[in-house]
Specification:
- It is built from 9 helices and 5 strands.
- The protein is α+β, with helices and mostly antiparallel strands.
- Strands 1-2-3-5-4 form a 5-stranded antiparallel sheet.
- The radius of gyration is 19 Å and the shape is globular.
- The N and C termini lie far apart (about 40 Å).
Length: about 240
C-alpha cells in the first residue's frame, strides 16, 4: 500500500458505477478488498495530504482522516430510499465540534462520472445568510474583491439554491453580487472537467492550491455564521 496519495484509478470510478446497479450489502461484502484499495485508501491518503492546508487556513479544523472521510453506508433511518450504499464519497474538513450539515468547510467529492472540490455550506442557517446579505449591501466592494480575485475566479463558480421571488437584490447592485444575494446557501465549487486528472498524484497539490484561493470566501462565510460585526471582518490578504 502506498504511504502517500498517488491518485485514483479506473477501479475507483468503476466501483461507484457498479454500486448504482448493485446497491446492497452483498455487493460490498463481495468487493470489500476493491473498496478498501481503490476507494477508501486513496481518500484517506488525500485527506492526510490536504489536512495541513485546511489547518493552515483554519487551525480549528479537525485533521483526522477518520473524521474527514465520509462513510460508504447511507443513513436511511429517515429516508424513503433504503438503498444502503452511497454511489459517491467525499472528504470534508470541519472545525472540531461541528458537523457537515451545519458547518462551513472545505471539501472534495468523487463519483463514477464526476469530481469536484471547494468550500462553503452544505446547509446555511437563514441568519447566517442574512448577515451575508447585510455585508453585500453595506460593503459590496469587500465581497467583490473576494469573488473577482484572479486566483479565485479562474477556479471557482459560486453555487447554491436561489430564491425565485424573495430577497431580490437592491437596485444597482453588481449583477454577480446580486446572484449571491438571492441564494439560500452559498458555496464555491471547482468541477473536474477531465477525469484523467484524478489519476495524477499532483491532484492533491492542485486541490490544496484551490483551498488557499478560496480562503477569503471561507473566512467571510465563517464570519457570517459567527455574527462577526461588519467592521471586524477579516482583512483580505
Amino acid at each position: 500500500m502506498p504511504d502517500c496519495f498517488e491518485g485514483f484509478s479506473m477501479e475507483t470510478l468503476a466501483f461507484f458505477a457498479a454500486v448504482k446497479f448493485n446497491n446492497n450489502r452483498e455487493f460490498l461484502n463481495e468487493n470489500r478488498d476493491l473498496f478498501e484499495r481503490a476507494v477508501k485508501r486513496p481518500l484517506v491518503l488525500l485527506a492526510e495530504e490536504l489536512a495541513p492546508t485546511a489547518q493552515e487556513i483554519d487551525p480549528r479544523v479537525d485533521p483526522r482522516p477518520s473524521r474527514a472521510v465520509s462513510r460508504i453506508w447511507r443513513d436511511v433511518r429517515f429516508s424513503r430510499d433504503k438503498s444502503p450504499l452511497r454511489d459517491h464519497m467525499w472528504l470534508s474538513f470541519n472545525p472540531i465540534g461541528e458537523t457537515k450539515g451545519d458547518s462551513c468547510c472545505f471539501y472534495f467529492e468523487i463519483s463514477a462520472d464526476a469530481a469536484d472540490w471547494g468550500c462553503g455550506f452544505y446547509q446555511m442557517r437563514p441568519e447566517s445568510m442574512e448577515n451575508l446579505r447585510r455585508i453585500l449591501r453595506e460593503k459590496p466592494a469587500y465581497v467583490k474583491n473576494i469573488v473577482s480575485a484572479p486566483d479565485f475566479a479562474s477556479r471557482y463558480a459560486i453555487r447554491g439554491e436561489s430564491y425565485q421571488r424573495q430577497h431580490q437584490p437592491p437596485e444597482g447592485m453588481d449583477a454577480a453580487l446580486g446572484e449571491i444575494y438571492r441564494r439560500k446557501c452559498v458555496f464555491c465549487e471547482h468541477g473536474v472537467e477531465n477525469l484523467d486528472e484524478l489519476a495524477r498524484p499532483e491532484l492533491a497539490q492542485q486541490i490544496a492550491e484551490g483551498f488557499r484561493a478560496a480562503a477569503p470566501l471561507y473566512r467571510l462565510l465563517r464570519a457570517c455564521a459567527e455574527h462577526t460585526p461588519i467592521d471586524s471582518l477579516p482583512a483580505l490578504k
